[in-house]
Amino acid sequence: MDIQLVYVIAGLLVGFIVGLTGVGGGSLMTPILLQFGIPATSAVGTDLLYAAITKAGGVHVHHKKKNIDWHITGWLALGSLPAAGLTLVWLHHMTSNIDALNSIIKITLGYTLFVTAIAILFKRKIFNYSKKNDLWVSRMNRQQQFITTVAVGFILGGIVTITSIGAGALGTVALFILFPLLPTVRLVGTEIAHAVPLTLVAGLGHAGLGNVDWVLLGNLLIGSLPGIYVGSHLANRVADHWLRPALAIMLMIVGGKMVGLWSWIASLF
User: Fold this and answer.
1) What does the pLDDT look like over 9-35, one tens digit per residue?
2) Could you give the angle at which helices 142-163 and 184-208 cross, rounded to 10 degrees?
3) Which of 100, 108, 251, 256 is the most buried (most CB within 10 A)?
4) pTM listed for this prediction
5) CB count, 10 Å around CB of 92?
6) Radius of gyration over alpha carbons of the chain, in Å?
């Protein structure tokens, strides 16, 4: 395999941040690949398989520690996997106009980065609010929880398949709101367990469309696996209340650039 140092370093950096904070995989990797000149379709497809492989180890660990609610995982997948399939069919029909498709992906990615940044920034406040207040979601019966969770999964499935991001930060926040009484570590484990089949199905679908750069994927994994290992071991030594806001601000800047927000603001002055 042709080892390209710049991609190995990118994988190392993103893996380190993921290990350190638990977030930022797709939301960092895809914009980085776009900056390297990788087409949006290839960046998304490659990143989806990258996410599936890197998160698979997390599922094994969380399962051993009994941190996964497989019922909730199944409910999410019941919505997200069909949504991924439908989105892939739409992407297949859009391949005849690749420029328009790349443009749609970039714009969707930009807005999703913005929402993801907000989710990262205010996740703890959202979590605390949902626990302390008698929200309608905390009073849902089992059937209502099932329907709502499947619907959330459907929305996540479409977003993740188009942009490769959202399964982590957005999925976790959604679960915080829907299941405020479950322990945080169990919600995180459940979200990771759901992210693996979703990103795998979406990634393989993109591979079938020719949107995966296998050499690029190999280079990213060479860097990311040791990066995640080192970052995970340093996680308790880094001030998370500084790191997460910095990550969120960076995502807002990148997302704003993709949708032309900063250019629009500059034109007002």
Assistant:
1) 988 888 887 766 666 566 778 888 888
2) 40
3) 251
4) 0.81
5) 12
6) 18
